[in-house]
């Protein structure tokens, strides 16, 4: 799984490294300092979606025998993008899988909807645009899109909405374990549910009177 916290952790690591380089103190072992770094990292990440540079200023972040220490670090959008480039690239994995499962090409996708606050990051938007060859839709709030979808699904199930058809599928193949620890697949991944499948299995031994199903 991949989310905003992974991006925050990259910024936290960068700030901790910069402070250790400057002051010789590793903040990773200080829980209180780490909490302040986490809050500052999230704030900086959000600011860099609309600004080219931001300053992280955390006075009295820690202290040693010489007195209190302060953390002041400037972070540019370019630096942030270099810190999280591999994370951004990882977001394309599920896109490739979805396209392959649907047997379509990126050019056949009518509209790309961004989901989650991290999709406000310019680098993410740019990467999505390059992959799909089109601008992602901006008419849906990425923080609200999941809730909106759930509300629509609820309305469909209740019968209040009749012009929308939402099909649920199994995210993983389903099956049972047979003799020798072999997985025998019964229902393929991405099968529309509800569904059912039957298959006849023989016993492993003569006169066997019980089975364990996994």
Structure description:
Residues 27-54 form a coiled coil. Helix content is 41%, strand content 17%. The chain is built from six helices and six strands. The protein is extended, with a radius of gyration of 25 Å.
Quickly describe the structure.
The protein is α+β, with helices and mostly antiparallel strands and 214 residues long. Helices cover 41% and strands 17% of the residues.
Topology:
Blueprint: H1 4-23, H2 31-47, E1 53-64, E2 67-76, H3 77-90, H4 92-102, H5 122-132, H6 145-158, E3 168-169, E4 174-178, E5 182-187, E6 192-193
Antiparallel strand pairs: 1-2, 3-6, 4-5
Q: How many structural units, i.e. domains?
A: 3
The radius of gyration over CA amounts to 25 Å
CATH superfamily of the largest domain: ATPase, substrate binding domain, subdomain 4
- How many helices in DSSP terms? 6
**What is the level 1 CATH name of the largest domain?**
Alpha Beta
Per CATH, what is the topology of the largest domain?
Answer: Actin, Chain A, domain 4
Secondary-structure element pattern, one letter each = HHEEHHHHEEEE
Structural class: alpha+beta
Count of extended strands: 6
CATH architectural label of the largest domain = Alpha-Beta Complex
Strand content: 15-25%
Rounded average pLDDT: 91
- Side by side, the strands of the main sheet go 1-2
Kindly report how far apart the N and C termini lie. 26 Å
Unreliable parts:
none
